[in-house]
């Protein structure tokens, strides 16, 4: 069975490849050592067919491209594009204000976290949030049943237009300004739309490689969109690839957690996101999921799935300290809160069919100062540097 490769950037342009795959029915993490970045395509989980590119390899190419874009921006300061009709600062402020309102309404804790960022960064993150939310609403919102691939094509055209400086409405205008100000690339946005297309036509995932690609599309992309805005700490010695990999890992971890939390809810919509081959290996099938009985087989299967999601959280944690100081708190808060959903699934004795795992108010409140404390930590790469000298 193919394992999932997660490439973790290392200093000096090398990458270490970690494989999160199943062996003998157990999840194993295997470090494959460091390799020059140019040799990445050689390290593949598709050992049986070396010519085939895995999802991880395809996604890693996007990661490298995003990291390169940020490095370029460091060398040549990009000029802020003044969009036609948007040179009016009042209008622009109004546009960002509306994005803030949406964020405050739909993601309260996250919104509070963004208040710690610099005003420029905060409003840029809001603009990205609103675009992601609107994109997700197309397939998950009240009008989702009417959404066709054509509608998604139109949404993509609209995206291209806003990247060209021709926004359709106020929310788009805020994002158009953000992408002209920060080295944000269109690719992760397009990829998120691709994820929505996938959701329209696919309701089963044969293996983790397929699921990984889906998770990248709908959530890993959010990490890649956010890093250029949140910024990397000036004192960080980590490579940009390392930081992007951590951001990608956080998106994947969040989405895997989402999937594990919503097994019952998704099943009622006829959807099973869990890898079919891993279900079969555990002696389970779609029917067991539709039946919704917590058996020992289900518990051991879930234990392995949770373990894998935690591994992605672990990879993500390595990168948070490398972010700009003011951006770390909301990231730590969202990471710790989402990770606790996994604890809650365990506390529910793995009944994710009829019990919704959630983090209670008290735990949420306790998490915020913990996240704040972690956000004060200096970049790990700098700390390592200090220990060496
Ligand atoms: C600081 C911070 C967390 C910034 C991200 C803000 C942002 C732009 C969020 C967009 C979220 C969104 C609406 C995505 C649409 C697709 C979707 C629904 C994805 C799922 C999120 C959960 O959403 P939902 O509202 O359905 O959740 P509940 O059911 O209400 O629980 C996802 C699971 C994905 C979310 C993914 C992220 C937030 C990525 C986080 C990664 C980073 C911010 C990079 C951090 C950098 C490093 C170096 C670690």
TrEMBL record:
<dbReference type="InterPro" id="IPR008949">
    <property type="entry name" value="Isoprenoid_synthase_dom_sf"/>
</dbReference>
<dbReference type="InterPro" id="IPR002060">
    <property type="entry name" value="Squ/phyt_synthse"/>
</dbReference>
<comment type="similarity">
    <text>Belongs to the phytoene/squalene synthase family.</text>
</comment>
<dbReference type="GO" id="GO:0016117">
    <property type="term" value="P:carotenoid biosynthetic process"/>
</dbReference>
<dbReference type="InterPro" id="IPR019845">
    <property type="entry name" value="Squalene/phytoene_synthase_CS"/>
</dbReference>
<comment type="pathway">
    <text>Carotenoid biosynthesis; phytoene biosynthesis; all-trans-phytoene from geranylgeranyl diphosphate: step 1/1.</text>
</comment>
<dbReference type="GO" id="GO:0051996">
    <property type="term" value="F:squalene synthase [NAD(P)H] activity"/>
</dbReference>
<keyword id="KW-0414">Isoprene biosynthesis</keyword>
<dbReference type="Pfam" id="PF00494">
    <property type="entry name" value="SQS_PSY"/>
</dbReference>
<keyword id="KW-0125">Carotenoid biosynthesis</keyword>
<protein>
    <recommendedName>
        <fullName>15-cis-phytoene synthase</fullName>
        <ecNumber>2.5.1.32</ecNumber>
    </recommendedName>
</protein>
<dbReference type="InterPro" id="IPR044843">
    <property type="entry name" value="Trans_IPPS_bact-type"/>
</dbReference>
<dbReference type="GO" id="GO:0004311">
    <property type="term" value="F:geranylgeranyl diphosphate synthase activity"/>
</dbReference>
<keyword id="KW-0808">Transferase</keyword>
<dbReference type="InterPro" id="IPR033904">
    <property type="entry name" value="Trans_IPPS_HH"/>
</dbReference>
<dbReference type="GO" id="GO:0009536">
    <property type="term" value="C:plastid"/>
</dbReference>
<dbReference type="GO" id="GO:0046905">
    <property type="term" value="F:15-cis-phytoene synthase activity"/>
</dbReference>
